[in-house]
Specification:
- Keywords: Signal.
- The protein is mainly α and 620 residues long.
- Among the domains are: 100 residues, no CATH class; 92 residues, no CATH class; 181 residues, no CATH class.
- It has 22 helices and 8 strands.
- Helix 1 crosses helix 2, helix 17 packs antiparallel against helix 18 and helix 17 runs parallel beside helix 20.
- The longest helix is centred in the C-terminal third of the chain and has 30 residues.
- The N and C termini lie far apart (61 Å).
Length: 620
């Protein structure tokens, strides 16, 4: 037993012994309790009954939890006792209520604002005379004024007196979820300076509140995914919310909110796309599906004066489920190779039951977190019931997979990092992470495994960007809305003008508008994929096909499988095509490039996973 554990055990034992002689509370019987001041009793009395009681939310003994907390061990002798939070125990007697216990309609300490008796919204007197903190960090309270970019905060108006939404109360720093909270605070969901929360007051806009505020998201989920028509903004409230713990979890027990399958409300619900139910990952897809798709582009009637239809950002779920992306460069019934064009752009119905089309695109990544992964041919020994087959692909890859060892902080950074590679990726991609050590992928393995795939995808997107500029005089700036600018037009006040005439002079007629639709569609695909940094992994085959078709149409306004020639002309060093793609068995990952073939070219073109020979036609 460590000295620290022995110390805590001795403290509890001492308190219990003292409590036995002191009794619990006063000798008076329970009377009518009021919420006014109730006399305190010796704190040792609390340990008599609660020394072994289990906190149902954290799963830890309440008293042992408390004596390890900063409320008890603050180093300056100012112990925050049980009654400082729950109210005096003079009328308790072990069976009656405390003034603040949250039972029978009474307030709990959090709701009663007891936390703020010590932790005030003040940044001037941060410590009292004994150097005990009396104010909490700026990120909790930061009520800014005015427009522009300002940090968000944790405790907005709707989260006042709601500390237990994120903190286990008896030991806020070491209780259940502490590591997760630390990871979350630096993540894309919790960092107060992140653009999705700091760039503007998103709660003022009904189109934004469902994903850019915690309150708006919870309302969206609880409504059965009904689009908001009003905001919850009130005059004088300038607080900007991050996505707090309460967004995905119910309370400090950290139970995950229950959800139903999500229907993507493209174009304000005019073109909805129903997704399959994928358990806890339903929570993720609601905000990672984008806001527009090709139906929005198809609804435009005049492409001589059309603002770019923006996909929105980080639409990884929409890509994984093949719901976003412009596909209409030709008729969907056109035959490509041995299948119809439609089947090469829609998910296979067996990947996730009751979704997609028979003979469509299969995906092991889409199976992850579902029972469809069991028996998958990539690793039949590993993909068995109970392993990586629950909670959907988002949770499996970005948080913590089922049936395997826990990741640090249960993955609450949401990053595909060394832990994610070791827990999930390596089970199929072992030979691509050859410097894996003791079950955890090294940074070098992560770099070679993921970064190289990201690079060849970026190279292909660069080819789309180059074609837009050289053939259509359209420049792309991913950092400035509306992203696509007309190089044929003069500058206005030193700034480029956005593209409005997508027909490039063909006019508002059938031919011009068909051309304009497909040109905007290619630009849409570029923006959609660029704004999802993990697109190359979320839907590898589908994304490659969107890129291929965009290039194939842009180079001569028809699909004629000319991408390899176009790529070679663009960069003959980067894009080289040998007699075949690989030697060896790609399925077994025992391959080498067939010289002079380059990795960049194998990303653009299709090839046999068994023989390494190029597809005919070359489309992936």
């Amino acid at each position: 037993m460590s000295k620290r554990v022995f110390k805590y055990s001795a403290v509890i034992a001492s308190l219990l012994i003292t409590a036995v002689f002191a009794g619990c509370g006063t000798s008076n019987k329970e009377g009518n309790l009021t919420l006014g001041d109730v006399a305190k009793v010796s704190e040792t009395a609390c340990a008599q009954c609660h020394g072994s009681s289990i906190n149902s939310q954290s799963g830890m003994p309440i008293y042992s939890e408390y004596v390890q907390s900063k409320h008890f061990l603050n180093g300056v002798g100012e112990v925050v006792g049980c009654q400082d939070c729950h109210g005096g125990g003079a009328q308790h007697n072990g069976v009656g209520p405390l003034p603040y216990d949250g039972k029978d309609g009474r307030l709990n300490p959090d709701q009663a604002g007891k936390c703020f008796g010590c932790h005030k919204n003040s940044f001037l007197g941060l410590f009292n005379a004994n150097k005990v903190p009396t104010a909490i960090q700026k990120a909790h309270f930061y009520n800014i004024t005015g427009a522009g970019t300002h940090d968000a905060m944790y405790v907005t108006k709707n989260f006042e007196n709601g500390c237990t939404a994120c903190h286990e109360p008896h030991n806020p720093l070491l209780g259940k979820g502490a590591a997760e909270r630390s990871a979350w605070a630096t993540s894309g969901h919790g960092k107060v300076s992140n653009a999705p929360f700091a760039d503007e007051d998103f709660k003022e806009n009904t189109s934004c509140i469902r994903c850019h505020t915690s309150t708006g998201y919870v309302n969206f989920l609880n409504s059965g995914w009904t689009l908001p028509t009003t905001t919850w903004a009130t005059a004088g409230d300038n607080g900007r919310e991050v996505l707090t713990c309460r967004t995905c979890h119910v309370n400090d027990s950290f139970a995950v909110r229950g959800t139903t399958a999500f229907k993507i409300p493209y174009n304000n619900g005019n073109f909805p796309k129903q997704l399959p139910s994928i358990g806890e990952s339903n929570i993720c897809v609601a905000c990672h599906s984008g806001r527009e798709n090709e139906d929005t582009i198809a609804a435009v009637t005049n492409f001589t004066n059309a603002t770019f239809k923006n996909s929105h950002y980080k639409a990884g779920a929409a890509l994984m489920y093949l719901s976003a992306g412009f596909r209409s460069f030709t008729s969907l019934d056109t035959v490509v190779g041995t299948s119809t064009y439609r089947k090469t752009l829609y998910p296979d119905s067996t990947s996730v039951p009751a979704y997609g089309v028979t003979g469509g695109v299969t995906s092991t990544h889409r199976k992850l977190g579902t029972t469809a992964i069991n028996g998958d041919g990539h690793n039949t020994a590993f993909f068995v019931p109970g392993v990586l087959d629950d909670n959907g692909p988002c949770v499996t890859c970005h948080l913590n997979a089922s049936g395997v060892a826990d990741r640090p902080a249960h993955g609450h950074t949401w990053k595909i990092n060394q832990d994610a590679v070791a827990q999930v990726c390596i089970n199929c991609h072992a030979s691509e992470t050859t410097d894996n050590v003791t079950g955890f992928a090294s940074q070098a393995a992560l770099d070679t495994f993921l970064e190289e795939q990201a690079l060849v995808s970026e190279n292909a997107l660069g080819l789309i960007q180059n074609l837009l500029l050289t053939k259509y005089k359209i420049s792309y700036n991913p950092d400035v809305y509306p992203y696509f600018y007309d190089e044929n037009l003069p500058l206005v006040n030193g700034s480029k003008q956005q593209v409005k005439d997508w027909t490039r002079g063909l006019g508002n007629n059938a031919a011009g508008n068909l051309f304009g639709k497909r040109l905007m569609g290619a630009a849409f695909n570029l923006q959609l994929i660029v704004k999802d940094p993990g697109a190359f992994a979320h839907a590898r085959t589908y994304v490659r096909r969107l890129i291929y078709d965009s290039i194939d149409w842009l180079d001569n306004n028809k699909l004629d499988f000319s991408v390899s020639a176009t790529a070679t002309a663009y960069d003959p060093v980067l894009y080289q095509k040998g007699a075949q793609a690989f030697t060896g068995d790609v399925t077994l990952l025992t391959t080498t490039l067939y010289a002079p073939t380059t990795d960049a070219m194998t990303y653009l073109l299709g090839y046999s996973r068994g023989t390494g020979k190029w597809n005919n036609p070359e489309r992936p």
